Amino acid sequence: MTFPRGSGILLHPTSLPGVFGIGDLGDEAYKFSDFLAEAGQTYWQVLPLGQTGYGDSPYQCYSAFAGNTNLISPQKLVSAGLLDKDETNQKPNFPIDRVDFGSVINWKNRILSKAYENFCKMSDFNLREEFQSFKREFSWWLDDYALFQAIRKNRNNKPWYEWETSLKLRDENALAKMREDLREEIEAQKFYQFLFFWQWSNLRKYANDKGVKIIGDIPIFVALNSADVWHNPSEFKLNPDGSPKVVSGVPPDYFSKTGQLWGNPIYDWNKMLNNEFRWWIQRVKFTLKTVDIVRIDHFRGFAACWEVPGADKTAERGSWVDVPGKELFEALQNSLGGNFPFMAEDLGVITPDVEDLRDSFNLPGMRILQYAFGSDTNNRYLPHNYIQNCVAYSGTHDNDTTIGWFAAANEREREFCLKYLNSDGREIHWDFIRAIFESVADTAIIPMQDILGSGCEARMNLPASDSGNWNWRCRENDFSAKLVQRLKELTKLYGRA
Q1: How many angstroms separate the CA atoms of 431 and 121, rounded?
Q2: How far apart are CA 396 and CA 371, in angstroms?
Q3: Which terminus of the chain faces fewer neighbouring Cβ atoms within 10 Å, N or C?
Q4: Are 62 and 222 spatial neighbours (Cβ–Cβ below 8 Å)?
Q5: How far apart are the two ends of the chain, measured CA to CA in Å?
Q6: Closest CA to 486 of 44, 39, 10
Q7: How far apart are CA 401 and CA 147, in angstroms?
Q8: How far apart are CA 480 and CA 476, in angstroms?
Q9: Annotated active-site positions, please?
Q10: Is the torsion defined by CA of 204, 189, 16, 291 positive or negative?
Q11: 29-34 long-range contacts, Cβ below 8 Å, gap at least 24?
Q12: pTM for the whole thing?
């Protein structure tokens, strides 16, 4: 699918400002939607919206379907009568420009539990009926997810593969007992999901009504400690005890000399092919209920996947294993009909089979300007080599900010960069934005950090590291009228408004 000429901003909701320790789906998210619309932007790109687990990465979630309850707005719960304002005022002294995930999670869990307790006492028929309708519509994933989370909480947050064998391997009698013993917690987990999707759908509608579309993100893999793997073990390459035979990663590259060992279990693609990719179709259809366009993370993994022995500590001994990606996308295309709004994250080791898969379905790939200055003028990431059907970025959530990148670049890269952009380097981030906006690429996306001119302290993620990531936040005065005007002028000048 091709997209009309437009531009947008990459900003995960956790990075929004606010007083509750983490960006959420409250007033600041609506203000950011206004900011995008006033600046002439077409897109708001977010990272995966799933419930994060250990390490707080949105690419390692407890479910491919469940929403991140840490994003639920306490402010909106007060408006709905589910909390008293005094209950939300009794909060820790959260940092302003960072997410302290530990304290946020503990506090959010307490107030969500209180909201559920208050809901059980309410006589609001409409809210109760909406909750019942939500449970009926999404029972096909919600029931097992809520059971998974209830057992995990009851077992001191141990991962499912450390539970007793009867639960780990899903003995039906053991599960029936858990459903009875943990009935109230299971219902609470369902209610938290209802709150997330209720708030998210209202926010998305508001953004859409302003002319802003949401670009979501589907990670190719799911976490081992997830309801998906626990509930669907036959869809993955697992040993009889539930441990992974092989895990995901990428070979040694720019980011890591030993490769990146992601550790996700690998799909049993043959079984998925035989059942006509049922799980994938459910996943994609559900995602398209929550966002307008989907960025497919690690697209090259749909042509071949880097499989690493499950017991290895680095990704060096992996091997490429073919994946029936063409059959998968044909099945998705048939299921979705004419609605095929995908963008492909085609970075990394891109071979002709990956390009063929991407182009067979007319999917726009990605061009990253930070990658453009390490070789010569034939570099595919230089704007004069872009094609129309692509998505151009200054950098992604895995890159340093543009100012951080420029400060760390070697002398040759900096010299080439300045000459190419006709820049003196004083506002290198705006020089990057201008080069991307004026390019032929149909879609241009800029991380909010580059709009603000933030340094390396605002980096969102450092691949191959396991701490200090995902916690950057904006400040309340960042979305100024002056910034709106400057961004709007560039957007209109290059035909992206």
Answers
A1: 57
A2: 11
A3: N
A4: no
A5: 20
A6: 39
A7: 40
A8: 9
A9: 297, 345, 398
A10: negative
A11: 29/73, 29/203, 30/203, 30/206, 31/479, 32/479, 33/203, 33/206, 33/207, 33/210, 33/212, 34/210
A12: 0.97
pLDDT along the chain (497 residues), means of 10: 96 98 98 98 98 94 98 97 94 95 97 97 91 98 98 97 97 98 98 98 98 98 97 96 95 83 96 97 97 97 96 94 98 91 93 96 98 97 98 98 98 98 98 98 98 98 89 96 98 97
Task: Tell me the backbone φ, ψ of residue 153, rounded to 5 degrees.
Answer: -65, -40
For 382, the token pair is: 């230089």
